[in-house]
Amino acid sequence: MRLAKHLAHAGVASRRGAEAIIAEGRVTVDGQIVTDPARDVDGSEKIEVDFEAVGRTDRKRVVFILNKPPGVVSTAKDTHGRTTVVELVDHATRLYPVGRLDADARGLILLTDDGDLAHLMTHPSFEVPKTYRVKVAKGPITDTALRRLRAGVTLDDGPTAPAKVRRLAPTALELTIHEGRNRQVKRMLEAVGHRVVELQRVSFGSLELGTLREGAARKLKAAEVDTLRRLAEAGPARGSSR
Questions:
Q1: Which candidate in 42, 102, 104, 226 is catalytic?
Q2: Does 113 qualify as catalytic in the annotation?
Q3: Domains along the sequence of the chain with CATH
Q4: Each residue of 104-135: pLDDT tens digit?
Q5: Cβ-contact 129, 241 below 8 angstroms
């Protein structure tokens, strides 16, 4: 097994996060620093991250759904002392967020110690849909703006994939995308002439926020996690989810 995948299985970080940790020289295998994420390991080695032994990879993984309040950051740690999403979930093992929401945004975010699932849910190639409810500063949101969003808009880092959009009110809409670029929803709306003033994620893959109160979290059932995994593994072939 690749070292990065082993660390993800062990709940150290997501697959991409593990690759970064390895590249920084923070991982040792049998006492030797390893910087190649593709290094093969079988689990019998002594593997440490920042001089702490990596736990077993066969323990049961957990996934939590959290209704993130505004002002809470979507990281495991924050150098500015702000509250993080990890601090809102009481669990014994190390958790990390699956993807991100802007600090001023609210709504559904996942936290897990399952690096493989995090990779499936966030890597662009799996095209897992995320739905947001958006309020803009001024309306009305025109049919032309909706058509542009549905066709995909050009941002400074390239064109977006087409979005699924429906108008909820003159200054509000619901938008579903499967990409995960930085501030993507806000930038897409800015590209069609609207400044976002409120942003809430209401679904992620097969999960919906529902009635979960703001700041609260719950552990997903095994069946819910299995459904998430199947949805992600289906990728673009799922068709109707896009």
A1: 102
A2: no
A3: 3-53 (3.10.290.10), 63-123+207-236 (3.30.70.580), 129-204 (3.30.70.1560)
A4: 999 999 999 888 888 888 888 888 999 999 99
A5: yes
